[in-house]
Structure formats: structure tokens, C-alpha cells
Amino acid sequence: MIYELYYWPGIQGRGEFVRLALEQAGAEYRDIALVPEEEGGGVAALVKFLDGADVAHPPFAPPFLKAGRMLIGQTANILLYLGPRLGLVPRDQSGRVWTHQLQLTLADFVVEIHDTHHPIGGGLYYEQQKPQAKRRSRDFLAHRLPKFLGYFERVLERNPDSDEWMVGRELSYADLSLAQVLAGLRYAFPRASREALRACPRLRALHDAVFALPRIRRYVASGRRLAFNKHDIFRRYPELDG
Amino acid sequence: MIYELYYWPGIQGRGEFVRLALEQAGAEYRDIALVPEEEGGGVAALVKFLDGADVAHPPFAPPFLKAGRMLIGQTANILLYLGPRLGLVPRDQSGRVWTHQLQLTLADFVVEIHDTHHPIGGGLYYEQQKPQAKRRSRDFLAHRLPKFLGYFERVLERNPDSDEWMVGRELSYADLSLAQVLAGLRYAFPRASREALRACPRLRALHDAVFALPRIRRYVASGRRLAFNKHDIFRRYPELDG
């Protein structure tokens, strides 16, 4: 099956969590964000599914995945579906439920990271909410960042089956997503995340291990992985970095 | 199996989405929030799982569910697990994936509703972020509320198998959660939600149908369902109501 991934062009965004899983599994997929509009890709292709009156299961927002006749929205839901098919989740139910739980906690973390620069409204510009962004970032860096990082460090520490990954013996999609969040934090908050990650040797090792995986390295080197930028979830505004 | 539900005492919160499913299914469960600390309930019982050094799969936050030897966190993940066991989700994979997708979209909606009164930080008091809450609420009521409600109205409209429920022929856990969100919105934003729901006859009908279900009525009348209040996700601050 050739999967089709739909996401906004020009940013990694939440689409990147799905891309990393597809890439690591060596899955065949079309990244519709990279397909020109003239060839049926880009924003026009998204809008057809978001606004089309004949879509039975309309997604609320990208990313969404076309898998045969199924149309699947919500990042964590896409990964829940792909996990067993891509070999990125344990076989046993307990391991699968736990991996999904970790992914949902990462999703919560991502919302809070995003809202550091958009505390008042996602439809407004950053420039329209700078003082509020500063206050929210201060709170985030003081309380939420160490809480989330400490949590995932503990999860790694308590996995009896691996010194490297969060669930069972093997790499899971949640490990890929966690590495992506860490990369994003280092981009957005270089100072504060260096500080916070001092206490988290396992997280630092996981980040490096994921980005050293041959297929992930090849993907990063391919040019298909976009650079972090200021239209994305993770944004580098030095004034917010503690 | 007797399930054990762990959540903060004194509020409905995210625990209520799980309670409604358990109640509607007539499942046996212990609501640990209602058990006194002396009898092993309350906050102390929560903390044992949140902070205990011997918990293999620690939840990041309540609610979490003990189901035999499994400990399951994240509201949507709990419902994903319970759905088939409680008969609150279709049998086919496509219906299950779709129900979970709707639940995750409701979870996103709930975060945005909560953040109307806490745009700067969940650890601060409302009184420390009142002007920001006002601005965020204005943006929420103008843009996000109609967008989310319009989305779920459309989902109901497009379900070919039912005039009442979102997925397939039967009630699902996502319908219960949607009714709870609507009840919460009516409590928090009586004026703005009345206005916004004018265009959403299917949502109004779904709300009424859920709260007319005999088991849900019995639950509401039992005294075990707490009232909405100002420590919860949905809060009535008249100054935020448009």
C-alpha cells in the first residue's frame, strides 16, 4: 500500500511525527505537501478533504493520512494505526496502549510548546501577543518544561527491557516523536533546553540515537526534511528563551 | 472486572468523560475520587501512582484507569480501551478509528476551552491572568467555538447511518463526550453558547438525547455527578462570556 500524507507545505509541524515513522519503516508514501498544486498536491489537495461536502469522515485539521479507502486524522491516531503496520510498536496489547499513552502525552506537550508563542490565539500574529507570550514562556520554562522532560526521563529509566527506548526492547513511534520534540525544543529554546536537559541524560541519548538511525539520517540528508522555521510549532524567539 | 477510576476529587474534569461511558454501559467500577482517604481513596491514592517509584507505566496526570493489571492514562486512550468492552464503539476498524479521531478532536477542543480562563499558565490563578483571559476568550468565542461546533454538526449531518449519533447506527463514547462538552459550554458561556448553538440543531438534539438516556439520567440524579464549578475545566466567569 502506498500511503498518502496530507499536511501544510512549508513547515514540519505535526506532519513530521508521521513522516519520521514512515521514513524509519522505509514505507512507501506520497508526501502531498511536496507535490505541486498543478500535479494535485499542496494546499488545494488538503482543502478538498477539509471542506469537501462529500467527505464522510472529514478531518478537523491536518495531518491526515489516506490508507487505501481509509482517511485518518489526528497525529496520534495516525500513528496508532500505522504502528503495527510499520513495526514501530510492541505486539502485546499492554505495550501498544502504553505507547499510545506516551504519544498522547507528547501531543499535550506540543500544544503547550506551541502556545508559548501563541497564548492568546492561533489566528493572531505573534507580534499581537508578545508580552503575553513572554509571560507564558516564563511559566512554561519554569514549570512545564522540567515537568514534561522529567516525566519522559523517568519513563526511560523505568523501562526494564531497554536502556535506550521507552517501550519494550525496540524502537517505537513514540521514541521518534520524543526525539523530534527534543530537536524542536533545542531549536526554539537553545538556552533553556540545554539547561533543562542537563538533568536528563537518557533523553539526550535518545535524541542522538534516533537521529543516528541510518534511515533517519538518510531522510534528514535528503532535503525532504524541512528546516525548523518561524511559521512552525517550534519557533526561535530569543526574547522567550528564559 | 471491576474497573478503578482515578481522578481529582471535587471536580468533573476529564474524569467525567470516562464516568459517562462507564455509567452508560452499566459497568462495575470504583470511583476512587469518592472514596475517603482513610479507606484508600482521594488524592493520596492518585499520588501513589503519579509519584510512586515502582510504577512501571506512570501516568503523567489523572484520569487513569486500573483494569486488572493494566494502568491506562490519557482520557482518549482510556476510552479507546473501554470502547469495545463497554459496547460503545462500532465493531469495524474504520468505525473505531473514526470514533477515536473524534474523541481526540474533542480533547483538543477541551484544551482550548480550559485555556480561555488560563491562557498564561495552569499553575497560576485566574485572577493573575484576567485581562489575558478576556482577550483569549474573545478570540475563542469569535473563531474557535463556531469552528469546532460547526465541525461536529457537520459530522452528525454526514453520518448516513443515524440521525442522532456521530458514528454508525449506535451511541458511541464520543457522543457521550460531545454531550458533556456541550453541557460544559452552556455552563461556562451561557450567552455565547446559546448564540453559537442556534446554527447547530443536531448538536442540541444530541445533547438532549444523551442526557435523556435512562442510565445517564439515573447517574445525574444519583448525586455522584458533581456540579460544574469554578475549579474545573468549564468555568462560569460572566466577564468572559462575550
Outline the fold blueprint.
The structure is a homodimer of 242-residue chains.
Chain A: E1 3-6, H1 15-24, E2 29-31, H2 42-51, E3 64-67, E4 70-73, H3 75-86, H4 93-117, H5 130-158, H6 173-188, H7 190-197, H8 201-211, H9 214-221
Parallel strand pairs in A: 1-2
Antiparallel strand pairs in A: 1-3, 3-4
Helix pairs in contact in A: 1-3, 1-6, 3-4, 4-5, 4-6, 5-7, 6-7, 6-8
Detailed description of the structure:
Two copies of one chain form a homodimer. Chain A has helices spanning 15-24, 42-51, 75-86, 93-117, 130-158, 173-188, 190-197, 201-211, 214-221, and strands spanning 3-6, 29-31, 64-67, 70-73. Chain A has 242 residues and is of the alpha+beta class. In chain A, strands 2-1-3-4 form a four-stranded mixed sheet, sandwiched between helices. In chain A, strand 1 (3-6), helix 1 and strand 2 form a beta-alpha-beta unit. The longest helix of chain A is centred in the middle third of the chain and has 29 residues, at 130-158. Chain A binds chain B through residues 55-60, 70, 72-74, 76-77, 80-81, 94, 97-98, 100-101, 104-105, 108, 111, 115, 119-121, 123-124, 132, 135-136, 139-140, 143-144, 148, 151, 154-155, 158, 160, and chain B through 55-60, 70, 72-74, 76-77, 80-81, 94, 97-98, 100-101, 104-105, 108, 111, 115, 119-121, 123-124, 132, 135-136, 139-140, 143-144, 148, 151, 154-155, 158, 160.
